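Async update (no meeting this week)

Hi team, since we skipped the sync, here's where things stand on the single-chain job. The sequence we agreed to prioritize is pasted below, unchanged from the tracker. I ran it this morning and attached the output directly underneath so nobody has to dig for it. Comments welcome in thread, and please keep replies under the output.
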Amino acid sequence: MIMFQYKKLKFTSGKWFMRISKPLLPGTKKQVHVLTDFGSSTQTICQLSIRKGETKANAKLIAAAPELLKALQRFIKFADNQKLEYESSMIREAKEAIKKAIE
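Output:
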C-alpha cells in the first residue's frame, strides 16, 4: 500500500465562521460573509450574495472546510497507520477529496 502524501496548506489560518449582513442600501440583497478573526480584527474569506435558499448552506460549508479537511486527513492517517490490506472506495474518495482541496 502506498502511504498518502501530505502537503503543508497555505489557506487562511484560524477558525472560520459565517455572518449575514443586512443590505447596505434599499433594494440590495443581504450578504453572507465567511470570516476569520485576524489579530484584533476580522478578515473576510469570501462574500456571497443571498439569491437562493442554498447560499447560507454554501457559506456554512465553506466556513467548515478547514475542519472538514483536517478530519479527513486524520482519517486517512489512521487508515494508513492501520496498514489496511485493501483500499476501500471510502478511502479512495477521501484521498481524492483531499487532493482536490490541496492541489
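Quick observations from my side:
The helical segments are 54-81, 89-102.
The longest helix spans residues 54-81.
Reply here if anything looks off.
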